[in-house]
Amino acid sequence: MTDLTPAATAAAVGTTGFKAPGTTPSKAPRGYLPGLAAVNFGVYLALLTPVLVSMAFKIQHITATPAEATTQLGLVMGVGAFFALIANPLVGRLSDRTTSRWGMRRPWILGGSLVALGGFALIGVATSVWVVLIAWCLVQTAMNAVLAAANATLPDQVPVNGRGKVSGVVGLTTPLGILGGSFLVNFLTDDFARFVVPGVIAAVLALLFVLVLKDRRLEHKPAQKFTVGQFFGSFVFNPAKHPDFGWTWLTKFLVMFGYAGIATFLPFYLTEKFGLDEQTAISTILIANLASMGAMAISGPIGGILSDRIGKRRPFVAIAGVIMVAGLVILAFAPSVAVVIVAQAVIGLGAGSFMSVDLALATEVLPNKDDTAKDLGVLNIANALPQSIAPAIAPAIIAFGATTALGGYTTYYLFGALVALAGAVLVYRIKGVK
Questions:
Q1: Rounded to whole angstroms, how far apart are CA atoms 404 and 326?
Q2: Where does 17-152 have alpha helices with state H?
Q3: Are 201 and 183 in contact (CB under 8 A)?
Q4: pLDDT of residue 202
Q5: Architecture of domain 29-219+229-429 in this structure
Q6: Tens of pLDDT, residues 220-239
């Protein structure tokens, strides 16, 4: 990327308000950072509220037994996350080729949010697990299209030496989205509202970002057609040719497995192990997320700013992973609800630092600056894939754990801790970034 003088940047933007391809301003445009943070907050509010709270109870309401609910929840979340895995890199590559007069990213951001809203409404009224499954796949596809296009604007709009700060602020949108969703569902008593209200908020925030974004615009279609080979190429890269990118992907996958991949079953953990009713469990999740967000609010910005100033990314990722492992171990052996809340705070402390530095690190190891959105989409597979694999294997791990002295959920959380620990160690295989 080339830093431009103010005059050159103005020339690149031109009278249309859109940036020319291949240019990066000397600083982020006014309104860009709050806009990017807002759209990420909206996506995570809408997506993670079902993942962490409302989907478990929706499935419970339309199934007969707790065992059936666990199995069906794993099915819905696993298959839905697979669609997220496909959508993110595919839309990233398509947005790199989009020649709309509205820019490369904006049509995907707004269109995806509106399609997702329809999917949320369908889940809200569904009385069958299969309807929920189909609608959730639609939601995951559409929302990950929004994420792919929105986060691809970071290297478009922000110079390298400012990305840690932006990444740190954007990283806070995940816990804020979780907290906002946990807060909302405390006041929404029916399934329809629990899904649609967050979806409406996400659509409104996507619209606001679209209005402030001075998007890149391609004047001409790329000479090379989008082929079947390119389609499959949207999901792969050559780790031998780009080893740092490969290790970054693997680190992200392992740490996110420990953080996001195992979180879906917390409502069942609270109701089955501690005997909480649905409303009490929802209130407990809110308190736990408040503790987690408070910890993230401390570690997130500090991690991003310090990594910029010190010029190092890897130590922050490694330390963050170890802290998250400690929190998962505490959660696994929690003797009371109070300890569950403490464990969530510890996990949040580590996750804040990880998320604040992870995106900045990723932008420094991208293989091809002309395929930025595609490559970021491949990295985002590491976010989506744990959310597919973990729920799919969770019933088997929980069932096996139930036959041991540890218990089902204790075994599951310890497994997540081991996976996250591997990610914390492997970050030092990345050689091109300090």
A1: 22
A2: 32-49, 55-61, 66-96, 106-125, 129-151
A3: no
A4: 95
A5: Up-down Bundle (1.20)
A6: 666 666 666 666 666 666 66
